[in-house]
Amino acid sequence: MVPWSAEDGLDLEGYRNTLLPPKEIFFPRWEPMLRYSGWGRNLRWEEVRAPSAGRPAVLFGVRPCDARSLTVLDAVFQDDHPDPYYLQRRRAVVVVVLACTTPGRSCFCADVGGGPADERGADVMAAELEGEIRMWPVTDKGAQLLAETGWEPDPGGRELLEQHMQRTPTPAHGVPAGRYPEALEGRFEDPVWDRLHLPCLGCASCTYLCPTCHCFDVADETSDGGGLRVRGWDSCMFALYTLHASGHNPRPSVKERFRNRFMHKLSYFPKRYGLLACVGCGRCVEHCPVNVDVREVMKELVSDVQS
Amino acid sequence: MSGDGDFQPRVLAFLCHWCSYAGADLAGISRLQYPPNVRVVRVPCSGAVNPLWILKALQRGVDGVLVSGCHPGDCHYLAGNYVARRRLALLKDLLDYVGMEPGRVSFSWVSAAEGQKFAQIIREVTETVRALGPGRKLVKEVATDD
Amino acid sequence: MTEPASLARSLLEEGRVEVVVGYRPGTLPLRARPHFAFSPEQAAQFIWDRTCTPDLTVYLPRLKGRRVAVFVKGCDARSLVVLLQERQLSREQLVVIGLECPGVVTPDKLPPEQYQALTSATVEGEQVLLRGGSQLERVPVEQLLADPCRTCQHPDPVIQDYLIPTNCGRREREDPYGVVAQFERLEREERWVRLEREVADCIGCYACRQACPLCYCPDCFTDRFQPRWVGPIWSTSDALFFHLARALHLAGRCVDCGACVRACPLGIDLRHVYKRLEQAVKERFGYVPGLDPEAPPVLGTFRPEDPGDFIK
Hints:
- The complex is a heterotrimer of chains A (307), B (146) and C (312).
- Chain A is an alpha/beta fold and 307 residues long.
- Chain A has helices at residues 23-26, 64-77, 84-92, 140-148, 156-166, 192-196, 205-209, 254-273, 283-287, 294-306; strands at residues 30-37, 44-47, 57-62, 93-98, 124-129, 132-137, 216-223, 226-233.
- Chain B has a single domain, classed as 3-Layer(aba) Sandwich (Rossmann fold).
- Chain B contains 4 helices and 4 strands, in the order E-H-E-H-E-H-E-H.
């Protein structure tokens, strides 16, 4: 996603989705938390926020899968310790979702409870139908944006989109979504992990490109006589993620990290929040260097139980 | 430190304990004059210099780096400087290739008996780096936004 | 049954190895993926064609001490040689199935919009058939050939126990340092700007490092804290530091398999930097990595007469 100005125009030809998910707008690659200087009694510190935090913005063209990922992130960042950094950004941004009238080959949103015209996470819903962009509000925030910009709300758009969707193939690959987390109950020690993890290289491209992955690390960027405390993306696929100061690592190899990634998305997260932490955007499918396909992993995890 | 005229570069020098560091001592004892812009890090051998240190120094805003070890054949550990020569040659080639200014990073062999040469090298390196101006490439600016 | 499959099957049936590491069809067009067969039945899926891009030797250090058969193309065989040279594996544990390689294809050569619109693709001789819905397009293999394959000097494995021959024609080798010369023609300042621009998109996912068979360190410098080499602020400077440091660590070792470039989700391509170091090693020390498992690593040895022209 990049800043847009009116001179740029709008070209949606061939647009499927962004390479990086919109989470970076709300949860940037890194952001500052506090600045400090001095030692001991002379220690001084002040809270700092990135200039971009809380800056009003409109996100246009977010796909329904990614909009739904915002509801997943909301669940985490609004939990028992509301996260001011995320929420400040979230409040200031209006999300305009563009329905998928031609879903991509790796999309499987319909398998995980979403759909190409899903309105969850959207403030305004838009669709390109018959060569025209139709928009209608979903939330009050969205209605306000449309009112302020003088855009006529278009309730007929929703109906037209529904008609269009009946003629469009559903982005589904037979991934049995409904059976999580039951299918993973008691599967922690299952031998299936010995096989499934084998091709995984242990890089973080899947987690960094994932719209719902939200792990972060807090660390100090030190400079002469002081420093900046920042939080930045972290990934459960890294050995360092779970490494203890003692040197012990409870997830010592790719197998344990791989298992955690899937257990977290499909079992732990749904148990805690009632939502799958996968929205079926297909980014990890497209960009895994060795084509570890989440859809197949999910199918195998469930089919193993049936057999 | 503003304006080209009074720019005082900061040069970091990794000096081998067995030769160049003693060469610096000799230069001092002999009261030889050389610019005060150099900060010395004593290392056990030029072969112990990790090229990442040099990159890190440039990243932290040092204007120039010098690595100085024993002449070929003189290494206290027999071959440390020979191994360093291969490694540092590749670092130099890499930096040249990617567009770092030549002279930002320099290398020399200075023995414990070469106080004169040490002073001369520091003069040369300082003037070269002064002419290049402040090191900007690779410097990490600690801003509060990306 | 294909030749790779029957060979793998017999190795497993005879109990010569515990596991065979090879390729099977992927779930995306033009992408074969790694396959691990532990039983003769699992061997049936093995294939070998021009979509078999991954360098499978990346998995071998993880399988240290186990009896493994592995499929290697010319470049993969060279990374295997470096692993053996650096004592990461023992030759005795391995059965090496060499693949005479006519060069592999990569979807990176297609514009992303075109690739993402494909539903399937098949390689037929020197043609690739691209299908996107009802659309059908034929493009020459040449157009999709991975960059390292265009300049590959050793397409046939330098080390092997079995050899699966190719019936594809061999192409003429292009100048391996053409990309280097092209970059060197730019002004110094422009070169730095280009490099910065290339790495500016880096998100630090380390897919390049993880896909590299020679980045096997259990404790990478990026994981160190005293000092901390990269991050926690992830700036272009950090990305530059990471990529330059990685290039230095692979100097005299990189065999140009291209895995790092293909692995990058952002499409960062620093192959020419690695080629420049390869060229420097060749010119200065007369050494080409990946050919001799008995040779000492080039940066772990020296000759008194090595050039020292750059030293005052």
